Amino acid sequence: MSFNVLASQSIFSKPLKIVLLILINCKPLITSAPLIEMKYIFIFILFSSLSMAAAQTLQRYAITAAGASYADTNFYVSSSVGETFTRTLSTSNLMATQGFQQATKINVTIHVNLKLFLQGYYDGSSTMKNVLYNQGEVADPLAMLTDYLTVELHEATSPYAVLVTTIDTLKTDGTIRCRFPSSVNNTLCYIGIRHRNTIETWSALPVMITADMNYDFTNDAFKAYGGNQFDMSGDGTVWAFYTGDVNQDQNTDLIDLSLLEEDVNNYLYGYYATDLNGDGNADLLDISNLEDNINNYIYAQLPY
Fold first, then answer.
1. Nearest C-alpha neighbor of 217 from the set 293, 144, 118, 149
2. What is the distance between the alpha carbons of residues 44 and 294, in angstroms, rounded to a whole number?
3. pTM attached to this predicted model
């Protein structure tokens, strides 16, 4: 005994049509069968129609570089780059989707731990002032944050292009934890430091960047390129980056002094680059370090 079932592409969304087709094709059998056989025939027809109503049509597709998706009135399926996905049909009250989504790329970071002091903000005993609190940038006097630094990783050879840049916060103890993308891991780089009123300073040599590495500028003048640091201790044990480059032209000169004097005359206080000692005000106390550095012709010493 067999049924001549017409299974077209439209059977999935039209289960009632299927039942009618089955009944029509089975009419001779139904009319001539005993009652017990008709019972099983109807059970089979019912089971078949329900199964067809819940069936799926699965097709696999290769994904282009942009990913892929498929949609019609009953369903929507998508897949990401490098995978395949399976188109799935569904009834009006059931959406069955089956596919593969490639994991989203995670931008992994590594950390580089630096230690450095800024001449103008140095407060003795290997600490700096709580400048961000003094200048009104943070409300917590216990935050112990000195200032924001721009830290750059440069190529080890000419033209020493910037590979990556980050802005992080320098603590009063001189430490700063910098975040970089993992793409620079195991890369030989110069470490360059820029600050709003400090001479730009680089590492003495290119260093191999690795996760959680440490680089301490403070214990040797020649941890900086050209030994371009100021001896804060007087005995060569604590070193700091030179202050006074207010206009960030890589020099301490009379232009910086004029900017400072203007802000002093205007009684400025708050987050200003001319507050060279970090006490929250632009005043006469800021002038001495700058004048000394001008007289000593302090400028940025870089490999180019």
1. 118
2. 99
3. 0.67
> Which residues are CB-neighbours of 265 under 8 A, at least 6 positions away?
none
Q: What is the DSSP letter of 146?
A: E
* pLDDT tens digits along 148-183: 999 999 999 999 999 999 999 999 999 999 999 999
Q: Which residue has the tokens 């009419």?
A: 27
- For residue 216, is pLDDT > 50? yes
**Distances, alpha carbon 289 to alpha carbons 146, 248, 255, in Å:** 18, 16, 15
Residue 266 CB neighbour total at 10 angstroms = 11
Q: Give the whole-angstrom CA distance, residue 183 versus residue 175.
A: 23
Amino acid at 180: F
Average pLDDT rounded to a whole number, residues 23-32: 49
DSSP secondary structure letters along 201-249: EEBSS-EEE-TTEEEESTT-GGGBGGG--EESSSSSS-EEBPB--TT-S
End-to-end CA distance of the chain: 92
Number of neighbours of residue 3 by Cβ within 10 angstroms: 13
Sheet holding 213-216, edge to edge: 175-181, 109-115, 213-216
